[in-house]
Hints:
Blueprint: H1 3-14, E1 21-23, E2 34-43, E3 52-65, H2 70-79, H3 87-92, H4 100-103, E4 107-120, E5 123-137
Parallel strand pairs: 1-2
Antiparallel strand pairs: 2-3, 3-5, 4-5
Amino acid sequence: MLIPDVLDGLKARLETITGLTVSTDPGATIVVPMAVVTDADVTFNATMGRGSDDIEVIATVFVSRADQAEGAFEVREYKSGHGDRSVRAALETSTGATDPLTVAGVMVRVDSASTEVAARGDTSFIVVNVSLLVTVDGRA
């Protein structure tokens, strides 16, 4: 499975969070709440015999502008392991029989989530950075 296809599949899963806009374009204009899904490192031949490749992915959720107090509370919902706004739950849950990641046998594992205030352009945002590992068939 190609990296753009993996990112699109993760985008579709995050779009199941009501009210969250999602993009795979790292240069997208931010309108909160919004997630941007980008690839980081790729490890080829992660298992013996070229069985799988691992793609490290970062999902950055821009929860609110840093000067909005409610963002400090909302960020906890996105960071939670379960619930309607849980990024982890959305990323690790198939969207159904037509989910391209499920069909391709892709495994998604969320490793960590951290909170920070990050600047983008001339605006500061409260963000959740979610690190995940996606394992794909290295032969396909």
